[in-house]
């Protein structure tokens, strides 16, 4: 461990969130910034990648259980392919990185470094589909994409290259495709709520903020402790526009040729940024046991005359936990004292610590300490393997409850422009307001306070709608009739 890590976290999450976040990411061993001259890129360290693997493994299992197969498509997309769907070109053009030369030879056609893959995947899906018997078709790829954003680097939140998965499907009907869209959105919600201990809200993006070329973009949104929202995953019903652009058609039972209804859906390592931001504290990284690279660290505490019996006891415990499937680490380094180890593993976010000293050995017990609140318990050695799952559940429940409280307390209503601006300016969080559906009303808020509409609740989600919309109220920004509920927030 470096001297910088040994110093621990020096910034405050509450008062200096950006610098605190960057410090946690680096000192917890998750990532480093890229080389000089490569602003916007990061080096993902093994510990950070292990967290991404945890997300990947969960989602990959969910996808495969619902008939999705993994594939891989080229990193480079010919410009002519990209141009076949005009909305893709217009939507991503400012962020596309282009390859113009191969070695010293100028290419006949520019190649886009994949900003998203609809325009390279759809043509091949079109080759694989002939009749209704070939549908539904579902493929997913785990890959990286590049979007050349001119923003400050924030590891996992804002980088020019990032890791994600993107799923693409084709269906006979709109109903089937929309059901697919909602299935994937539900799987994203499950990831956050059942694995990452983070409650999220589901809804749609407003018409002007849809994925380029999509009919409907659905989203899960997560609220960070600093009051900003994270677009945590999106699932798009694309209608038939991509099918028409790339000749993705099928013959139905009557031999009539029809365009397929398509979807795409993706979740990136922005989920890691949201995880880190939500749970971590001024001591360092905090992650739930469900995804922690090490769920338990065992720290032996001994003097010279008790070293052998304490280490033997600790090693036996490690072996038993490992055999039970627990991700466990025995920290038996003799060049570091227990206090240093406690601080180091707290910084790295291990959710449960076992402390073993001569008293625990003599009493046949284990002292259990939770991260992040330091709550302690003593367990019988004979019961500890069974009890550890209960401790995992307790830690998870604490993290979820804290995140849920943050969300619940930070959804506020506003009826007019002053209410939206004042509430976001004073409190942050989400402001729920009646909205007429016009982009210019959002623009007025965005230009004034850099907040935007992050979500419109689904029609059947009565709990999320502003209570006045159903009564025919006016838009909070203009005098037109309100037709929807909008959630305004600043966002990452």
From TrEMBL:
GO biological process, one term: prolyl-tRNA aminoacylation
Compartments reported by the entry: Cytoplasm
MF annotations from Gene Ontology: ATP binding; proline-tRNA ligase activity
EC number: 6.1.1.15
Domain Aminoacyl-transfer RNA synthetases class-II family profile: 19-288
Pfam short name (any one): tRNA-synt_2b
Keywords: Aminoacyl-tRNA synthetase, ATP-binding, Cytoplasm, Ligase, Nucleotide-binding, Protein biosynthesis
Record-level GO cellular component terms: aminoacyl-tRNA synthetase multienzyme complex; cytoplasm
Subunit organization: Homodimer.
Domains (record comment): Consists of three domains: the N-terminal catalytic domain, the anticodon-binding domain and the C-terminal extension.
Role summary: Catalyzes the attachment of proline to tRNA(Pro) in a two-step reaction: proline is first activated by ATP to form Pro-AMP and then transferred to the acceptor end of tRNA(Pro).
Protein name (record): Proline--tRNA ligase
Species whose genome carries this gene: Halogranum salarium B-1
């Amino acid at each position: 461990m470096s001297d910088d890590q040994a110093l621990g976290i020096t910034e405050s999450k509450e008062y200096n969130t950006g610098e605190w976040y960057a410090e946690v990411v680096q000192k917890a061993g998750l990532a480093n910034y890229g080389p000089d001259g490569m602003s916007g890129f990061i080096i993902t360290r093994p510990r950070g990648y292990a967290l991404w693997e945890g997300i990947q493994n969960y989602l990959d299992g969910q996808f495969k259980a619902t008939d999705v197969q993994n594939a891989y498509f080229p990193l480079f997309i010919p410009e002519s392919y990209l141009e076949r769907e005009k909305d893709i070109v217009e939507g991503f053009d400012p962020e596309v990185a282009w390859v113009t030369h191969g070695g010293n030879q100028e290419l006949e056609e520019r190649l886009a470094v994949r900003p998203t893959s609809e325009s390279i995947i759809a043509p091949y899906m079109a080759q694989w589909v002939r009749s209704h018997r070939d549908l539904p078709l579902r493929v997913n790829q785990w890959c990286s994409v590049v979007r050349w954003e001119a923003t400050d680097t924030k590891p996992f939140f804002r980088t020019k290259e990032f890791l994600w998965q993107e799923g693409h499907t084709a269906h006979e009907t709109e109903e089937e495709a929309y059901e697919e869209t909602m299935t994937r959105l539900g799987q994203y919600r499950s990831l956050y709520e059942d694995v990452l201990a983070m409650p999220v809200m589901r809804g749609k993006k407003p018409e002007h903020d849809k994925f380029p070329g999509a009919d409907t973009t659905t989203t899960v949104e997560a609220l960070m402790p600093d009051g900003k929202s994270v677009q945590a995953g999106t699932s798009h019903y694309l209608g038939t526009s991509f099918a028409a652009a790339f000749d993705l058609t099928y013959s139905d039972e009557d031999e009539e040729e029809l365009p397929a209804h398509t979807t795409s859906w993706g979740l990136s390592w922005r989920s890691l940024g949201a995880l880190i931001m939500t749970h971590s504290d001024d001591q360092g990284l905090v992650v739930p046991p469900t995804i922690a690279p090490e769920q338990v660290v065992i720290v032996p505490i001994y003097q010279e005359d008790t070293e052998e019996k304490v280490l033997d006891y600790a090693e036996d415990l490690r072996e038993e936990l490992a055999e039970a499937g627990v991700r466990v680490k025995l920290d038996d380094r003799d060049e570091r004292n227990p206090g240093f180890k406690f601080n180091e593993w707290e910084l790295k976010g291990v959710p449960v610590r076992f402390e073993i000293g001569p008293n625990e050995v003599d009493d046949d017990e284990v002292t259990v300490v939770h991260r992040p609140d330091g709550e302690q318990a003593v367990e019988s050695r004979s019961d500890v393997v069974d009890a550890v799952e209960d401790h995992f559940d307790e830690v998870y429940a604490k993290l979820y409850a804290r995140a849920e409280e943050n969300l619940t307390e930070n959804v506020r209503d506003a009826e007019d422009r002053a209410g939206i601006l004042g509430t976001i300016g004073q409190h942050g969080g989400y402001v729920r307001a009646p909205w007429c559906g016009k982009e210019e009303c959002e623009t007025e808020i965005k230009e004034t306070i850099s907040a935007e509409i992050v979500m419109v609740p689904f029609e059947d989600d009565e709990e999320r709608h502003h209570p006045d919309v159903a009564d025919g109220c006016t838009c909070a920004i203009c005098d037109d009739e309100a037709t929807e509920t909008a959630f305004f927030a600043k966002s990452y």
